[in-house]
Each structure stands twice: as structure tokens, then as C-alpha cells.
Amino acid sequence: MNCEFIKNNVVEYNKKLLSEDERKDFEEHLVNCESCNSVMLRHRKYFDLLKRLDPGFEPPDGLLEEFSDSMIKESKASSDSILGKKEMNSIKKALSSRKKEVVSSDTKTHFTVSKKTLASLFVFCLIIAAIYFYFNYNFSNAPWSVKTIKGNYSVDGVTSIKSDLFEGENLLTEIDSEVEIRIPKSSKVLVNENSLVSIVQARDGDNILYLKQGGIVVTSESITPSLTIKTDHSKLHDKGGKYSFSIDRLNSQFVRVINGIVVLEFNNILTPIGAGYVCEIVTGQTLGVPYREEASQLLKDELNKYLYENGGIASLQTVLFEAKEEDSITLWNLINRVDKNELVILYDRLNQIYPVPEGVTKKRVLGLSKEVLDLWWNEIEWQL
Description:
The protein has 13 helices and 16 strands. The chain is an alpha+beta fold.
């Protein structure tokens, strides 16, 4: 019996609908599998909450449908969710059954309109509380642990020796100070001196750290770190690896990737940055193009001319001539930065390095079809 069967049949097990052999195998698997045992515990906790609802109250019309649909959406939104449509339908049936019991057994009781309204509101509040408890209890990824490397730091303006951080808290390092923050099941973050960070969200599958000033070095400790670094002007999506991210006094932002890949989001433009590359957002207003630190100086100079000094097609041609296979990320990120005439020669050079996969055509690339560009990027990414 595998984990997939367990997670798909939790409701049947609790309702004693499994065969005797299936039940024995089910329980034996739970004893030996910590992951599935955790699923079972979450399921029971949630249904225990539902059982506490007063059966004497009648939910308002339409509430069950809204509740079921809402929970399904919330469940799908979480990468670790264990409540799918099957479980939601079971919840819905359970609540519907309670509603029918109330109608059949309470024939002699007549509520006034005001009492029924109050009862409905009470049930609604209990359900909302149950939803809030479930998602906050089961999907919270807090606290984040703090370790002093050197010097001192403060939390929310108070010099601290706290070992835990929670959502909404701000950490500031002093001069000649460094602090390591560990995000469970995600990453470790080295906070440099004179840096201010804030925990925006600590959730399984969706952790958000706000970099307000200074710099950090992030090392992924999971294949899927599910970490986003936010600033006032951008977001950096961690795809796994090691990288640094900093903001200077002019509000320019610098990303340097040591290994792995990150994606910088700025003004709805997604910029993939690979190992050995750096990228800059100048004064928080102008997005640069990632370039390889070991690229030729001529490539760097001409790229700078093309982006900031109106170097035009002459500078672009020099960049294409100087580019090696290792510079493919630079060329890729130029696709949305060149005009149509320049895009033709850019396509030809990049296609020499990483030929387009099946389903991708030159015409559709020149038309900047997102679907086609995604196909081509996926082909390039796995080879990097």
C-alpha cells in the first residue's frame, strides 16, 4: 500500500468503508510512514472542529456550497494541501446531514426570524474560525530560527537575543554584525551588517522575506525552497541554489547567483538569472540584463552601451559575436529588450547555441508568443 492510496482514502478509513484487509494494510502503513500519519492527524483535528458545531443551528442556504468551493480553492492553492475535492465533498455531506437532522427532529420548534439569523451568523463564524485554525495551524512555517554569527541585532527596535522570529517582526543588524536566519524546509539566510529584513509570511510552500536595506546571502536547503525576497520595487523568486541580494544607498539592487537559478520580477518582466551571473536594477527604476561575471570585458562594455547609451544594432552585433554558449542567459533576456529587426539576428545566434525544440518556430518567437518562449526556455533551462 502506497502513500497515494492512504491520502486518497482517509475519509473512507475514518468512516470504516475499507475492507478488513485494506484497513489492516492502511494501519500498518501509518505505523511506518511519518508523512501519512501526519496527514491522518491533520484530518482528524479538522473533523473534530466540525463535530463541535452545535447541531441545533441551521446553516443559511448556499453556505455549504460556498464553504466547499472556498475550501477546495484554498486547498489547491497550497502545495502541501491534503484536503482535495473528495474530502471537501465529505465535509459538505456531513454538514448537510446535520441540517437534515435539525429539520426532521425539530418540527415543534419555531424560531423567529431574528433568532434564525443569529444562529446562521454563529454557524458561519464557527466555520470561518475552523478554516482559519486549519490553515494557520497546519501550513504555518514559523518560527524562523535566529543565530548570531557576530555582533548584535535588534528585533522591532529592541536589542535582542531572541532565537525565534515570527510573521511581522523586523530584524536589524548593527555595524560589523551578521545573523543567520533559518527558514524551516526552505533556506538559510545570512543577513549582512546594517541590514533590515522583515518576515512578511511564513507558510509551507510560500515564504516571503522583505529586504528593506543592506544585503543578504541565501542558501537553499530544499529542492523547492518556496521563498520570495521582496523589496520596494521587485521580487526575487528562489528556484534553488545560492545567491546574494543587496540594496545600496541609491536604491540600486544587485543580484549575484553563485549556483542554481533565481528569477527577478520587475515591472511584470521576469528575468531568469543563472549561476555565475549578476543583474542590477539601477536606482530602483531601470532593469539591466544579466551578464556572466567571467564574460569578456568587450561584451560587458557593449551590453552597457546597448542598454544605457543608445549603442543600437552595432553594440548588439558585438555582444552576439562575443557571446559564448555560457552567455546564453544574457541573450535570452535580451529577447524582450530589442526591436523587431534586431530580434531576427538575436534569434539566429541563440538558436545556434540552443536549437529551438519541436513546436517552436521562428515566426512565433518573433511574434513573442509567451507559450512558445516558455517552451524554448524550458529546453534551455534543463541544460544549464
